[in-house]
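task queued by scheduler; priority normal; single chain, no ligands, no partner chains; default sampling; output format set to structure tokens
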Amino acid sequence: MWGKNKNVDETESADKKFQKELVSGVAALVLLTILDKAAEPMYGYQIAKVIDGQADEAAVLKQGALYPVLRSLESSGLLESRVEPSVSGPPRRYYRITESGHNTLARWREMWDQMRSFVDTVMKGEGNGEER
């Protein structure tokens, strides 16, 4: 016997884990891409709004999850930031992509394209003699 059917809780847990791993794997790529296309530096809420505007359903990348990734990208030298006062609330930290960030993004795009192509090929069953 190959195993028993998972109950609903186990299935939902596996789905959430898979979703979290996917998001963590692409969050930096998404953030660098958004900041690469931005005409001006952006603060976290602005970035979250761009992401929300791109999502077909509920936001895949939650606003609270953005900040640790932004800090990590900054500490890696891929982004830089500055804090500016805000007329409506606390000061805002604005981020912009660095030259190193542009170079890294170009490499990551190539890696993403290769991975996406590979996954699509496997999921379509191309090249392995099996069609589903």
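post-processing summary
- Residues 23 and 61 are 7 Å apart (CA to CA).
- The chain has one domain: 8-121.
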